[in-house]
Amino acid sequence: MNLTTIDIIVRRALLENNLPIHYYCEFLFHAATCLRELNFDTLQIVNTANLPVGDYGEVNLPDDFVDDITVCVPNGAGIFPLPKQDWLNPIRIHDVDSGEFVTYPPTDAGTNGLTTFYGLPMGWSYYRNVDSYGMYTGRRFGAHGGTVQGYKVVKERRQIQMTEAFIGSNVVVQYISDGQSVDAASQIDYLAFSTIRSYQDWKRSGNANNDNSPEGRAFYNQKRLLRAKLNPLTIMDIRNIIRTSYTAGIKM
Amino acid sequence: MAVTTIYRITEQVYSLLSGGDPKAASSISMGELKIAIGQTLNAMLKTEYFSVNLKMGELIPNGSVLALYENIEVVSSNGKSQATLPIKPLKLPRNMGVWAIYPKYDNSSNYEYDKEFIPLQMGQGGLIKSQPLFNDLLGLVGYECFGDKIIFTKDIKNLFPDVVLAMRLAVMDISQYDDYTALPILPEMEMQVIQEVYKLFMSQPAADKVVDQTIAEGAGTPANQQKQTL
After folding, report:
1. Cβ-Cβ contacts under 8 Å for B24 (sequence gap 6 or more)
2. Are A18 and A101 members of one domain?
3. Do B157 and B75 fall into the same domain?
4. Taking CB atoms and an 8 Å limit, are B133 and A20 in contact across chains?
5. With a CB-CB cutoff of 8 Å, which residues 59-98 of chain A face chain B?
6. Domain residues for B110?
7. More exposed terminus of chain A, fewer Cβ within 10 Å: N or C?
8. Which of B167, B9, B1, B153 is nearest to B78 (CA)?
């Protein structure tokens, strides 16, 4: 992938506008703002971090965290995604003596024998309801699938809270970065060059706050083109998706 | 056309003011005229920028006189580095009077004339610290100009103890030109500067004739209208 830097984009903008270096900062500010906006929905810089799980199941969010993609349990070469558990209480409790945050006592859901782990039923009836051929006969009326293991992103705490039954010392978090934590090189997809340039020109124009101005529309058009350029789908991919959706069946 | 020098312009103005060869008892000196020429040129260069460059939408002050100063010392101050402007340049938009500042990081290297520091407007140095992406200015070194002081965003003196600076400043520093060095001014300015300086000094009494009540020519001239005597 060809990458560029903000510095290159900014200096190019100065050259194109016949401006001296005294305008560097203004163009830099606009480029940074544009990069931030593009990261939310277009460039989506995805970072992956292996983060430790604390004493009360908390995971501190990275500084550039915008939104979570997956929180996974690492196991060998694989990572296994956990689901979100919105029932988790974002309020922390602390030990009355030490003052330190502690885990909640186990909830009913945590001790429910009819729950599953990664889709594998944990209840005793699973092993009982089999026929003489070892085939599962079902009949687990009222049981539900899914797992109580999981996480909740608590943005106000800047933490991820794991369920109390979580076993493991770390999780792998894939998240959308705001792109603001990149270093001096600030590597940016080269395809975004024109989009950032058009944003700079828009914000320097007299129509900086008008989305429907010619400059604003030029930016959104460039953004649309960028999204098209970034789309990885090829005709072969689409064909393959269709072909893999076929399953062999009995010929009637 | 002869090369324009400060001496040549001074002489021309002086001749006009004196109505011929300068008189020995003139109240105007060559030194005074040279200073006035420098001042007039700076005013004209600034006017030129606003009336010509800006009007055409050109922000780069092409045609300006840029004085180059080298070997300017850098000192550490309050966790940052600072330097002093050798001369106050023209006040142009975005402080373009301080056209460029280049480093020479050690004695054995050259001035980095292709890698100038990044100019910031007054107060921006503190503001950008709040912005995660460019609080380090992408690793570059910026500077703010407060009066005659240049404050850098980093302590470059601490990083490079032997660092010295070169500065290009938009100013016609008349002290940099001796009597016989060509002045880097626009040819169309020559006539204008002569006229402007002449206007400045035309009210000065010229040493022309002896005013003496005892001679017939001076008889009847009131004392407050008398001109300088030899």
Report:
1. B207, B230
2. no
3. yes
4. no
5. 63-64
6. 66-171
7. C
8. B153
